[in-house]
Amino acid sequence: MSNDPSSVLGLTIKLPTDPIDEPFHNLPVPDFDETGFLGRAAVLRKIKRYILGSWPAISILGDGGIGKTAIALKAAYDLLDDPKSDFEAIVWVTAKNQALTVNEIERISTSIQNSLGMFSEAARELGATSNTDPIDELLSYMTEFRVLLVLDNLETATDARLREFLREIPRGSKVLMTSRIGVHKENDVKLDPLTFDESRALLLNLAQGRNVKLLQDLDEAGRNSLIEKLKGHPLYIKWVVSGVQAGRRPTDMIASNQLLLDFCMSNVYDGLGKGARRVLQSMQVLRGVRYQGELAFVNDLNATDIQKYLLDLMRSNFVSMTHASGYDSDAGYEVGDFAHQYLAGKQPVQDDFRSRVLSKNERLMELSLRMQRTSAQAIRRYDPLSVDIRDHHDAPAARLLVRAIRETKASHLDRAVQTCAEAHALSPGYYETRRVEGYIQTLRRDYAAARTAYELAVELASGPAKAIALYHLGSFLDVEGVEPWAALAAFSDAARLDPDSCAIFLRIAACQFVLGNYLLTLGSIAALIKKSPTSEQLELAFLLCLRSIVFGSEVALTKGDIAAGLEIIETGLALIQDFSQDRFGSISDDWLIHISDVCTRFSAASVGSSYLQKQTEGLAVIAQSKISRAAESGRVTGLIETLPVDQSYGFIRFRSESLFFHVNDLIDRRDWRQLQLGNLLAFEVEFDPSKGRSRARKVRALL
């Protein structure tokens, strides 16, 4: 070549060529070639993962112009070069029937009108003849070969044939769809707007590529303001750039964007049913995040209907599901910005409908405030018949729960369960729907269902409400005697959330007593009386204190643990000082008589220890000093030693005697059914001249 450069002209060049081994495809040139594919890397990875995964059908859903076609094309092209992909063909079919220009929406006269047309086109691309059934032919190809079928703009061709086809997709082949409306047979990928940075990159790339100087020369503040108004919508950005390129001002394009809104939303709105449109209109009146119960109330709908209409609105992308902080796990619903703009211009709310919705909403707010005032009362906070309400969006479900509780009072338990189910369907994240269900299931004696409901209530509740849910779970476990240690754990968790609650500490004390932790029982009572207990709570705490002294000391005496028994008696008697005993009368006297007797027995058991004997004698004096009237009436205590079956009498062991008593001798005859051998009774000893021996009168069960 150095000696004779012209010799190059006579050379024959033969280079090896790479074999063409990529799948067959008919993918169109992507419209993002102008700028390159921007952003959405995480969503793109998810789509490709779904395609290569186990899902036979995948849908990319979103508003018109949000970029569904672009990301589907990007995924398809990536799969052509992906070694993990084993598709033998990628077939693209579009049912796009209109295109947006700066000045109008152009109809595409040759567009596919239904799913049969899409199947026919796909089958033709794979080599089918026109004489065969296109669906059968397409399924045959997809059975024989691994095919990725991409159906673009599916909302214009959704019908029963499509849903049937999706049921029969052969293993190994897949269907990827882009649509403004879901079809219930696919794994959805919801495409959200571009981020601010992605929108900025798209706007600048388009402006530079098309040499739109006005947009290139915008200062940073002006450019950022424009980007904010474009809402991260790719088609909106492209439409504005095209308009400015054609000589229009950006502000004019944004102020007169009804053409764009019609292109993005109109065909979807036309597919909505009457009920869905009515719910959508109510959301136009009540802006912001709204909850299922609210929307059902203002539209006079039951849970089944409101769920159906909201699902239709989400499938159409008019409404999106969201979560508002502070409302536990409940999902709210909100109309998107594009949808609001479209509806305001094309489907404005009529005045009479607006008035009805606002009136219903005012009634809902009044109901909510009334119920919140009731549930906020400290005395009713932990009452199982009181319904806690977080905010107005709970009011429709709370109203049903109040009805369910009323139905239990009329013994309509099955109906009450159904009412709870309706309330839960309206507000599935509202913990009280499960808590009240647990209460009703307990009345029905379906304890397994009750426990499940209470545990679900705890899972749903958060913040202060969790203390209430834990309290009721603990109450169920405690009262039913299922697991007192689990009940204690629930009450302890509740106390950490609400340390000022007397109701919780009273239940903790009761659980400790059942578990035989008598000193801990007294400690819980001491904590309780430092708060602000009601008269009823004080009475229960006082009697529990007396019971703890008696039963704790008896257990210690049986075990021969004199020191432990004296500690319980001393702690309990010191605690009694904090109570006003006058209100408890003869009931406390009977317990104190027995405590004095226990002290005497401890003294006898302490022979050989002058210190312990003096201590027990001193405690006996303290106990006697607290007895108000019973000492003068000659009341004593003893244990049931005989209780014949199916009889109305029994015998009490008192010192060395066996004293007869009859059910009619009980001060409270309701105690008879609870009596068992070994129970402690307080009574008066009376000589019976007809029998020639003593018997018990005015008997009180100390249980």
Describe the model.
- There is one protein chain.
- The protein is of the alpha/beta class.
- The chain has 29 helices and 16 strands.
- The strands form four sheets. A six-stranded parallel β-sheet has the order 1-3-6-7-2-8, with helices on both faces. A five-stranded antiparallel β-sheet has the order 14-13-12-15-16. Strands 9-11-10 form a three-stranded antiparallel β-sheet.
- Helix 1 (41-52) packs across helix 2, helix 3 crosses helix 4 (134-144) and helix 19 packs antiparallel against helix 20 (447-460).
- The longest helix is centred in the middle third of the chain and has 25 residues, at 351-375.
- The mean pLDDT is 85.
Which runs of at least 5 residues are low in confidence (pLDDT < 50)?
A: none
**Rg measurement, Å:** 40 Å
Report, as a whole number of angstroms, the end-to-end distance.
118 Å
Oligomer: single chain
* Strand coverage percent: 5-15%
Write down how many β-strands occur, each being a DSSP E stretch of 2 or more residues: 16
User: How do the strands line up in the largest sheet?
Assistant: 1-3-6-7-2-8
What number is the mean pLDDT?
Answer: 85
How does the helix and strand content classify structurally?
alpha/beta
Biggest β-sheet, characterized? 6 strands, parallel
What percent of the residues sit in helical stretches (DSSP H or I)?
40-55%
- Count of individual helical segments: 29
Overall geometry comes to elongated
